[in-house]
Amino acid sequence: MTSQETVGVDTAMPPLPLLDGITVLDLSSVGPASRATRLLADFGARVIKVGPVPSDGGVLLTPPFFAYSGHRSMERVAFDLKSEDGKEALRSLVKTADVLVESFRPGVTERLGLGYSALAEINPGLIYCSTSGFGQEGPLSQSAGHDIDYLALGGYLATSEPTSDGGPPLPGATIADAAGGGMHAALSICAALVGRQSTQRGCYLDVAIADGVLWLMSLTLDEHLALGTRPGPGHDLLTGGFACYATYQTSDARWLAVGAIEAKFFATLCHALGLDEFAAFQMDPSRQAEIRHAFVDAFAQATMNEWLERLDGLDTCVAPVLTVAEIPQTSHVKARGLVVEAHHPTQGTFRQLAPVLAGMIRSTEVINVPDMTETQTAAILDEAGVDADVIARWRTQGVIA
Q1: How far apart are CA 395 and CA 401, in angstroms?
Q2: pTM of the entire structure?
Q3: Tens of pLDDT along 25-59?
């Protein structure tokens, strides 16, 4: 069987969006909650962003046109949730929504009368997802925080290889926001949607980003809890303790990432480096400094591209450390169509990352992304059954925009 063949899959029929028919109300503008609804939209859900009306002389918090995949496949309404009519406008959408996602500080939606218990009376099937840094309860629930804070409290920074001054590194991606929060929320929402099929009732989800980081660190934390060890940089295979799992500089000051964990891959790499004598000592702690030194010297003898050519076709688990600018040019990204073209009404055509996760629908057509400074408020309220005269009055009063 060739790599292009697929077992048991009918590739003739185009896949349907997995979350087709699911409506999500998103009360966030940025952060983990917006990461979550981005995922849900790419899986086919209808996502309606609920933002505030423009205040007198105020400016709406609007991310750059390219952020969050340009909000492709999303719609937007604007309500004044501090007014009773603005709350009523939201309630009119809640009646037929499947999911509501919010990221206010804990307690805010309850004070507005828009908490889970209030909205569940309107729609018992509503899945209500609150995202926050530390959860709705606990000593840190009212504390502000950002990605680096959650990674610090979750042990991620303390187990990463330190910088030259001995301090923890600054991660190159918002891991806590994207995975500890965004993917955490999206996964919990999808699980709740499945559960609702049997219960016919919704539920409340308290998504804490810091809790999600603990799950990301579960291998390390579980080791400590079970054995009493104190993991840190260089503690084990995955934190830099062995030469087979590390980065090495090449003669042109580029870097290669080596992840030759399995013995056969390590032996193949040793042979390619001309260091067969070390193949039998991969997991010998007493030999790691010697092996690492030999690897450093070997990789320094050629450029990154020369090493990639030499190792091409060999199972060595070696990959180049690419810059962001290099990623779209790789043959892998091009072959799998992971970058697509999009068009914005005012910004024109640009490129963006495609819906890349398994089960997301990917199109070869140019993706039209909306201008998120515009709204579809009147049309969406009309669809929800709100009387036209009420919509007009709310607009005149500045309750909606």
Answers
A1: 6
A2: 0.92
A3: 999 999 999 999 999 999 999 999 999 998 744 44
Residue 231: C-alpha distances to residues 161, 220, 234 (Å) = 12, 7, 8
Residue-wise pLDDT tens digits, 64-77: 999 999 999 999 99
Contact present, 90 and 109 (Cβ < 8 Å): no
Distance between CA atoms of residues 80 and 50, nearest Å: 10
Per the structure block, which two tokens stand in for 348?
Answer: 């024109």
Q: Is the pLDDT of residue 5 over 60?
A: no
Q: Distance (Å, rounded) from C-alpha 304 to C-alpha 299? A: 8
Q: Which CATH architecture has domain 23-216+368-397?
A: 3-Layer(aba) Sandwich (3.40)
Q: What angle do CA 282, 286, 287 make, to 5 degrees?
A: 45
- The span from the CA of 208 to the CA of 335, in Å, is 37
What is the percent of the chain where pLDDT is above 70? 95
Residues serving a catalytic function are: 146, 177
User: Could you give the dihedral angle defined by the CA atoms of residues 103, 107, 113 and 116, in that order, rounded to the nearest 10 degrees?
Assistant: 70
CATH for 237-321 is 3.30.1540.10
Q: Where are the domains of the chain?
A: 23-216+368-397, 237-321
311-369: pLDDT as tens digits: 999 999 999 999 999 999 999 999 999 999 999 999 999 999 999 999 998 888 999 99
2 has a pLDDT exceeding 80: no
Same fold? 23-216+368-397, 237-321: no
- The tokens for 349 are 């055509």
